[in-house]
Amino acid sequence: MPFRSELTGSIPDIVDELLSIEAFHPWIVYTFTGVLDISPTATSTGQENSLHNGSETTGRTALVVIAHHRSDSLTAHTARRATAQLEAAGYRIDLLDLQAEGFDPRMTVEDQPEWGNRDKPYSAETQEHMRRILAADVVVTVFPVYWMSVPAILKGWIDRVWNYGFAYGRSKPRLAGKRILWLGLGGIAADDAALPDMQATLEAQLNTGLAYYSGFAHSSVGLLPNAEERRQRLDPAGNFYLDEAAAGAQRTAQYAEFDRRAAEFVEEFLAADRVAA
């Protein structure tokens, strides 16, 4: 089951003072307090970009982030299906295809945090991505799992955009109250003994290390195994095996189940949102 965290609370104003001290590292405050601040706040709207309206919108926006270099990939397919579910639920969609939009994941001097200045003006590109996150009520990221983590383009997006003074470093985080779903496509087989470790690793990185630290009210990881046509597995001795590619009815059944599970993760995410509202 995906991990969920429902977070509420407040932090004394002294945290703001500590964070403003030059060279004071924010994770020291995090360790001291256990949390920066996760009180829900009103979402900043800003001017919306690349929005596609559903037939009956709720007035809420979903930012769908795709982290894959191919538009014909299973990742892109999964993102399109998730987008359709969100639209059917009444969300307006801001589709952010990192590769198609030419996002550069490499850190720059302009976007490097300055611990003594949480109001540092970052690059125009980074500020535009920040605006799109602020304009969203929910965020859904879709990505292939690489080495039990996210691909470089998504990691770079997090590093450059979820920056000091924006995603963290304030007693009242600007992202507080938002909700996020991480849909990770894994080549690992559903019956692989390493699958629970992969789930736990992604949850630690994304739910705890990122969303919780940034004040999100809800974060869940939907890990989707069996993404590859050729089943990958390890035996108890650590030997790697790659099965023959699935074909015909077997392949159809494999990806029908894959789509069903992905849709289930999105529906669970939406159901939790309806309950929270």
Task: Give an overview of the whole structure.
The chain has 277 residues and is of the alpha/beta class. It has one domain: Rossmann fold. The chain is built from seven helices and eight strands. Strand 7 and strand 8 form a beta hairpin. The chain is globular. Mean pLDDT is 82; it is low at 1-55. Belongs to the NAD(P)H dehydrogenase (quinone) family.
Content of β-strand: 15-25%
Task: Give the strand tally.
Answer: 8
CATH class: Alpha Beta
Extract low-pLDDT stretches.
Answer: 1-55
Distance between the termini: 22 Å
Order of helices and strands: HHEEHEHEHEHEEEH
Computed structural class: alpha/beta
CATH topology, by name, is Rossmann fold
Query: Helix amount, in percent?
Result: 25-40%
| CATH architectural name | 3-Layer(aba) Sandwich
Report the total helices. Answer: 7
Question: What is the 3D form?
Answer: globular
Radius of gyration: 19 Å
EC number: 1.6.99.-
Pfam families: Flavodoxin_2 (PF02525)
GO molecular function: NAD(P)H dehydrogenase (quinone) activity
Keywords: Oxidoreductase
